């Protein structure tokens, strides 16, 4: 064989080897990337969490600017079980109506904050197994508002996009529904005489009653058909499955019960959320 032909053959073999190595690298790189981010997070070293800043006792911002509440502490516990310490769980406050879309659009990895699971919401994002079930309440200074009929033609505040919004549309057809971005603005409007009552979660209503003694919880409505779950974007089953596993671990070892007692003293606990032994 001529030297030139030999050199050409060697060169071609070298090029083929390099190309083969490149193909192998391209095939392996995504697998390694996936292994480094098994839960498909925005940043594999932390979890971005959308929540509310005014939904006490579920999620709220304290005087020093940190997030607290049942949902916050419960999710921090779940995240720790997944290997994320407290400083790697980043909470961002947002209006309730924007939480689920923000998860679906990839701004947050998860949304938390007593977000009830409904068929309509599951069209947009996935929900974990339920971890909270409770009551909806009418909060008002008008002690005559004790029945559905008494709400006729009354201006009833609701937070846009919540379960209360859906419930009020179905069950309070004669009330004048006035939508707000959050509970604080609705209660402020009620205290200023702009609305007659506010329809919200019972635990939050109790807290507002403590802060404003003139306000009373006048009615309660059971809402056990839409338990709260953590919200995860569609197409991320590994994160969803991992959260479900750790949620049930926290229920079984008594952590959920301990946090519920801390944040909702005296409130009933569903049997399915308590340890089985």
Short description:
The protein is 40% helix and 18% strand. By secondary structure, it is of the alpha/beta class. The protein has a 5-stranded mixed sheet with strand order 5-1-6-13-7, sandwiched between helices.
With helices defined by DSSP (H or I, 4 residues minimum), what is the helix count? 9
Basic shape: globular
The arrangement of helices and strands along the chain is: HEEEEHEHEHEEEHEHEHEEHH
Output the strand order for the largest sheet. Answer: 5-1-6-13-7
| Strand-residue proportion | 15-25%
Mean pLDDT metric: 88
Low-confidence segments, given as residue ranges, are 1-34
Helix content: 40-55%
- Main beta-sheet strand count, sense and barrel state: 5 strands, mixed
> How many strand units?
13
Structural class: alpha/beta
N-to-C CA distance: 82 Å
**Radius of gyration, in angstroms, nearest whole number:** 25 Å
Task: Please describe what this structure looks like.
This protein is of the alpha/beta class. Helices cover about 40% and strands about 20% of the residues. It has helices at about 5-35, 70-80, 95-105, 120, 165-170, 185-190, 200-210, 235-250, 255-265; strands at about 45-50, 55, 60, 65-70, 90-95, 110, 125, 135-140, 155-160, 175-180, 195-200, 215-220, 230. Strands 5-1-6-13-7 form a 5-stranded mixed sheet, sandwiched between helices. Helix 2 crosses helix 8 and helix 2 (about 70-80) packs antiparallel against helix 9. The longest helix has about 35 residues, at about 5-35. It starts with a helix and ends in a 14-residue tail after the last helix. The model is unreliable at about 1-35 (pLDDT under 50).
């Amino acid at each position: 064989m001529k030297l030139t032909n030999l050199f050409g053959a060697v060169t071609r073999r070298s090029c083929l080897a390099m190309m083969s190595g490149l193909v192998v690298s391209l095939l392996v790189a995504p697998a390694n990337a996936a292994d480094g981010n098994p839960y498909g997070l925005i940043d594999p070293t932390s979890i971005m969490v959308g929540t509310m800043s005014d939904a006490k006792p579920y999620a709220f911002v304290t005087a020093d600017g940190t997030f607290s509440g049942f949902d916050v502490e419960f999710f921090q516990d779940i995240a720790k079980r997944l290997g994320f310490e407290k400083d790697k769980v980043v909470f961002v406050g947002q209006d309730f109506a924007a939480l689920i879309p923000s998860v679906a659009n990839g701004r947050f990895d998860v949304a938390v904050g007593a977000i009830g699971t409904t068929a309509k919401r599951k069209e947009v994002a996935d929900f974990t197994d339920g971890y909270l079930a409770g009551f909806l309440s009418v909060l008002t200074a008008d002690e005559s508002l004790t029945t559905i009929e008494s709400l006729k033609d009354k201006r009833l505040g609701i937070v846009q996009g919540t379960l209360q919004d859906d419930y009020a549309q179905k069950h309070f057809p004669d009330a004048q529904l006035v939508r707000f971005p959050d509970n604080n603005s609705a209660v402020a409007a009620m205290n200023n005489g702009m609305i007659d009552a506010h329809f919200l979660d019972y635990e939050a209503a109790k807290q507002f009653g403590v802060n404003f003694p003139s306000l009373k919880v006048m009615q309660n409505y059971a809402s056990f058909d839409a338990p709260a779950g953590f919200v995860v974007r569609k197409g991320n089953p590994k994160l969803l499955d991992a959260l479900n596993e750790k949620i049930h671990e926290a229920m079984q070892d008594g952590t959920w019960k301990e946090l519920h007692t801390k944040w909702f003293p005296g409130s009933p606990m569903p049997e399915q959320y308590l340890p089985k032994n």
